[in-house]
Specification:
The complex is a heterodimer. By secondary structure, chain A is mainly alpha-helical. Chain A has 20 helices and two strands. Chain B has a single domain, classed as Helix Hairpins, CATH 1.10.287.3510. Chain B is 65% helix and 0% strand. Classes of the chains: A mainly alpha, B mainly alpha. Chains A and B meet through α5 and α6 of A and α2 and α3 of B.
């Protein structure tokens, strides 16, 4: 029954093509997309049940080609968790979309949204680097079209660095793949893992790996390569910005979590040190940048960078507890960041502008929007009992346990600064006398409110069920670090 | 042969980098096209370029050892198609920016 593995990619692709044919009928498109999204949730639910809860590794060999040449899709526990997140966020985006999109942004949105979902899911499942490159490109091209929807002059100008830097990153990735294939004769991740563990690789191989990780860092938005992100994300249409904020940078994070253990990079102290420095710098620069911004989504976008730093911090510490904490942090952050963009987006729609202070006193006029912002904002800052508290708690516990004093200290300070910039939005937008509610009715849109409050509720649920969820993350981390079960499942004992 | 090819890759990458650093977005687009092709050539070069290799599956397979490795060529074929799509999008975006701004120079937008 490993054909089930193909559903998260094939279903959105087929849906996307069907939606292209329904262009011009957005309400029908939305219904079809939500319908197939629910089917996708059911399929991913089965995958989660087997892979994340049952610790199986599901492998699909496309066309039954062997692993050294063929394309292989693998769902292990980490991939299953990521697939579940992408299905959740894409459904929430569809619920949010009709209220969040301006009328000229509606054409092509639904079809492109499905292409993006197919690309993201493919990145999570693929078992070889060239296929990963292809799915990166599927994701990127869909994201380019989505982020430019509407085509405002300011928007296309600010999106340009995003497009260019990501394209350059892809070319770097492709070059690295070429060299890796030239040296080893394979691009399959599991086979590469066996080659790396069995013998000395030449220097040119490690150079190519370095190039590949640079490309991943660009896509993840790690310091110092994050400059494309905070200027471009706030220009995207609202539901798209929320989906990018939740999912897109996590694709890069996932590839790092997947590749570092497989290529046995985590054990080296030098690489741990480099990753720790990068993670600390990313956390700190992201939060400082956020403090300097004057728009709601500008602040939130810079926070994506800061939060990605926390996840890489977990990976850099490279113990079972720390990596599990990193995975838990991904789960928490995907939900919370999307919820914040949803609620912040409603405030922006009500005020007609994303500038801080354009609209005031939303707590009085739109209390549910305020709730939808308040809960994830506290969760992001790490206030108990919300999900972010547990994410940070596990990470900092692991950090102090391993004696990484400096970077753990930075992680703590960044938590306070996060709270400060969340308060900046809260005080200017939600407190005070009501003022600037130029489009007050937009704040009562049931789809937008439902999506924002729904994700806020998920965040609370993650906080309350932190124990069992962390147990799942710990199993995922154990599988990830052990490497052997993954390699055995993919290669099937042939090599 | 492989030395010449490596040299071409180097020249292509360096010219592409020079063009990408320009403020003129048309030059940037040309830079990206060069970059994409440099990467394709690099993939081919890195796979070894054995001298006297023959195409597989054409005619009688007399000397299978001399077959050129088809997989890097398949990689490049895929990458060319993807590069075409990316380039088309980049050019469309540039046309759009040109129409919006009336100029080909891209400025760093002020932070706010």
């Amino acid at each position: 029954m490993s054909n089930l593995v193909s559903v998260p990619v094939v279903l959105p692709l087929v849906t996307a093509i069907a939606l292209v044919l329904m262009e011009g009928r957005p309400r029908l498109q939305r219904r079809v997309a939500i319908g197939t999204g629910l089917v996708g949730v059911a399929a991913v639910g089965l995958l989660v049940e087997r892979a994340a809860c049952g610790s199986q590794i599901l492998v699909l060999r496309l066309g039954n080609w062997g692993p050294e040449l063929g394309i292989i899709w693998v769902v292990d526990s980490l991939a299953a968790i990521m697939l579940a997140l992408s299905q959740l966020i894409s459904l929430a985006t569809l619920v949010y979309a009709p209220g969040g999109l301006r009328s000229r942004e509606v054409p092509h949105f639904y079809a492109l949204h499905q292409f993006l979902l197919a690309g993201v899911n493919g990145c999570f499942m693929t078992g070889d680097y060239f296929n990963l490159f292809v799915f990166f490109e599927v994701t990127l091209l869909a994201s380019f079209c989505l982020i430019c929807l509407g085509g405002r002059p300011r928007q296309v100008e600010r999106v340009f660095p995003y497009v260019l830097l990501n394209l350059v990153g892809s070319v770097m990735f492709l070059s690295a793949i070429g060299v890796i294939y030239g040296v080893t004769g394979t691009v399959n991740m599991a086979l590469l893992a066996t080659r790396v563990s069995s013998g000395d690789m030449p220097a040119v191989f490690w150079a190519a790996i370095g190039l590949m990780f640079t490309a991943f860092s660009i896509k993840t938005g790690l310091a110092p390569l994050f400059f494309w992100l905070p200027d471009s994300y706030p220009e995207a249409p609202l539901p798209i910005a929320a989906m990018f904020a939740g999912l897109l940078t996590k694709v890069g994070v996932y590839t790092l979590f997947r590749s570092v253990p497989l290529l046995a990079l985590g054990e080296s102290e030098a690489i741990q040190g480099i990753l720790l420095v990068i993670a600390s710098a990313t956390m700190l620069l992201g939060v400082l940048g956020a403090l300097g911004r004057q728009t709601i989504r500008g602040i939130l976008s810079f926070h994506i960078i800061s939060q990605v730093g926390y996840m890489i911090f977990g990976l850099a510490l490279y113990s079972k507890l720390a990596v599990a904490a990193g995975i838990f942090y991904i789960v928490h952050h995907v939900v919370v960041k999307t919820a914040l963009f949803f609620a912040g987006g409603i405030a922006e729609r009500v005020g007609g502008s994303g500038r801080l202070g354009a609209v005031k006193g939303l707590l009085v006029t739109h209390p549910w929007v305020a709730v939808g912002f308040f809960v994830p904002a506290l969760a992001l800052a790490g206030v108990p009992p919300f999900s972010g508290f547990w994410g940070k708690f596990f990470l900092i516990h692991a950090g102090f346990g391993l004696g990484a004093w400096w970077s753990t200290g930075i992680a703590l300070v960044v938590g306070f600064l996060t709270l400060a910039s969340m308060l900046k939005i809260w005080v200017t937008t939600f407190w005070g006398e009501p003022e600037g509610q130029t489009h007050g009715h937009r704040g009562h849109d049931p789809g937008m409110l439902g999506a924002a409050l729904g994700l806020a509720a998920v965040s609370v649920a993650i906080g309350l069920a932190a124990g069992p969820l962390f147990a799942v993350c710990e199993r995922a981390a154990a599988d990830l670090l052990a490497v052997t079960p993954y390699v055995d499942a993919v290669l099937g004992g042939e090599f | 042969m492989i030395g010449l090819s490596a040299l071409a890759v180097g020249v292509l990458f360096s010219s592409a980098t020079y063009l990408l650093l320009s403020r003129n977005i048309q030059r940037v687009a040309i830079g990206f096209i060069l970059l994409a092709n440099a990467a394709n050539l690099l993939v081919l070069t890195a796979s070894g370029l054995p001298s006297g290799a023959i195409a597989p599956l054409i005619g009688e397979p007399t000397e299978p050892d001399r077959f050129a490795d088809p997989l890097p060529q398949a990689f490049i074929l895929t990458a060319i198609v993807i590069g075409l799509g990316s380039t088309a999008f980049l050019l469309a975006l540039i046309a759009r920016i040109h129409r919006a701004k009336g100029s080909d120079r891209i400025e760093v937008p002020p932070w706010k």
